Amino acid sequence: MAWVRLEWGPRAIDVFEVWADIVVVVDVLSFSTAVDVAVSRGASVLPCAGDQAAAERLDQEFAACVAVPRGDMSKTRPYSLSPGSLAALPGGTTLVLASPNGATLTAALASPGPVVVAGCLRNATTVGAYAASVGSRIGVLAAGERWSDGSPRPAFEDLVGAGAVIAATGAAERSPEAAAAAAVYADAAVDLYERLSDCMSGRELCSGGYSADIAWAAEVDVSRSVPLLVEGRYVASADGSATAVPR
């Protein structure tokens, strides 16, 4: 019988590394969504826990393609955390993707350890079903955001994304936190784009001119990809399709 738990941020890693058979990293705006889009294109994603300088070093070390901050995109460096920027990412590309939340959590998960996948609204049903097939103890790790002083901040979008994955696991046993997240997703699903746009993270993106990122993130179950962490990179799981439903 499957049992699913929801926990938040870096402090949950120690718990899940001991308890979970599989961990689903959820960072809807925008790391997990970007990973899904990239993997659906046949690319792999190398998460970077540091800043852009660290990403540039990984780029050189692995002869990869580095994503840059949204405001630094150009014709020669067209990729960023914005999911839409990855829509034409060539298959076979290794993309270095820095993120203070989802990428940092991914990098902190020890290997060997539980299976790690990236989940978001776009692939929630596929990832939830995959998680349930892997083991009976499913940990859903909501990334959350950070305040200006670096302290963690729970994020509505990750609560909703986690709830979508949790609902899709079909787990009979859910922690109170997991059950609450599934209920929040069910409530938000009727006007998801509006809810995501109005939450704190969504408002920040809209004010910066990146409302399209929310549109990409709010598309539910348009992807059948299961981004699986293998040797430090997210790749398409052999048990999950790497194809996306056309937008």
Protein described:
The protein is α/β, with parallel strands linked by helices and 247 residues long. It has a domain at 3-42 and 101-232: ComB-like (putative 2-phosphosulfolactate phosphatase, Alpha-Beta Complex), CATH 3.90.1560.10. The protein is built from ten helices and twelve strands. The strands form four sheets. Strands 6-2-7-1-10 form a five-stranded parallel beta sheet, sandwiched between helices. The protein starts with a strand and ends in an 11-residue tail after the last strand. Mean pLDDT is 93; it is low at 241-247.
Topology, please?
Blueprint: E1 3-8, H1 11-19, E2 22-26, H2 31-40, E3 44-48, H3 52-62, E4 65-66, E5 94-98, H4 102-108, E6 115-119, H5 124-134, E7 137-142, E8 145-146, E9 152-153, H6 156-169, E10 173-174, H7 176-188, H8 192-198, H9 200-207, H10 211-217, E11 227-230, E12 233-236
Parallel strand pairs: 1-7, 1-10, 2-6, 2-7, 3-5, 4-5
Antiparallel strand pairs: 8-9, 11-12
Write down the CATH class of the domain at 3-42 and 101-232. Answer: Alpha Beta
Structural class: alpha/beta
What is the H/E order? EHEHEHEEHEHEEEHEHHHHEE
Mean pLDDT, nearest integer? Answer: 93
Largest sheet: spatial strand order: 6-2-7-1-10
CATH topology (fold) name of the domain at 3-42 and 101-232: putative 2-phosphosulfolactate phosphatase
